[in-house]
What we know:
There is one protein chain. By secondary structure, the chain is mainly alpha-helical. It contains eleven helices and two strands; from the N terminus they run ααααββααααααα. It has helices spanning 2-31, 38-54, 60-88, 97-119, 144-166, 168-178, 180-185, 190-215, 223-237, 242-262, 270-282; strands at 134-137, 140-143. β1 (134-137) and β2 form a beta hairpin. α5 (144-166) packs across α6 (168-178).
Amino acid sequence: MIALQILFAGFAISALYALGATGFTLIFGVSGVLNLSHGALLVLAAVIAWDMTANFGLGSLAGALIGVLACAIATLVTYFAVVRPLQLTRKVANEEREIFVLTGTLLWGILIQELVSYFFTNNAKSVAPLFEGVIPVLGVRIPSNQIFTAVICWVVIGLLWLLVNRTTLGKVVLAASMNARGVTLLGFELSRIYVVVWVIYGVLAGIAGALLGMFLGVSSYSVGPLMASAFTIVVLGGLGSISGSLIAAYVVGYLETLTAYLVSPAYRSIPSLVLLVIVMYVRPQGFLGRR
C-alpha cells in the first residue's frame, strides 16, 4: 500500500516541480538569468492565494487566480527593478554582470520572503483545495487534490509546448534561446521578447505556487528548500534544457517523496542534493544540458 502512496504522491509533487522548473529553465535559456528569487515567488503566490480565501472569503479558484496574478506582477518587478537595470548599467564590467544579477535576484528573494513573513505569516498555511475527497485506486485512497494537481501541471506544460512549437511568438522565443543576435537581425526587438518570457515565467511560477499551497502548504521558511529543489532540478537536467528539467523534476520529486515516507520529511531534500554533487562531478552539463 505504501508503495502506491509513494507512487501517486511522488507523481504529483514531481509534476509541480516540473511546472516550476520549466519556467525557471525558460528564462535562463532565453535571457541567461538564473533567478534566485524563484522560491520566494512560489511562496508569494501560495500565501496570497491562502490570504484571499482565509481572510477575504473568496473561493479557492478566485484566490488561486489572484495568487497567480500577484506572482506575475512580482516577476515583472523582478525583471524591471532588479535584472534589467543590472544588465544595462555601465558601472558593472561585462564579465561581472552575471554574478551581480545572480546576487540581485538572491537579495530580492530574501526581501520577498521577509515581506511575506511581516505582512502575512511565517507559519505554514495551506490553500483550500479545489477538489475535496478521495478516489480509491487499487485499494489505496488517493486524495482528489493529488490527481488534480498532476493533471493541471501537465495540461499547463502541454499548453506551453504548443505555444513554443506551434505559434509564431513561441518560435521567436525558441530562436532567441538559440541565437539572440540572429533574432535581432531578423527585426525582432530582444527586450520585448524578454518581457514576454518573464511574463510566461511569472504565470507558470504562480500556478505552481498556488497548487503547491493546496498540495503541501507553505510558509516563508519554504523559500530556501523550494529554491534548492528548483536549482537542483535545472542543474541536473542541464541548464537551458526544458526536456532535461522535466526528467530531473521526476528524479528529484521521487527521491524527496521516498525520503519523506521512509525516513523523515525533515530530510527529504538531502538525497537530491547529494545526487546533484555527484552529477556535477561526473556529468557537469546535466542529463540533457546544452551549456
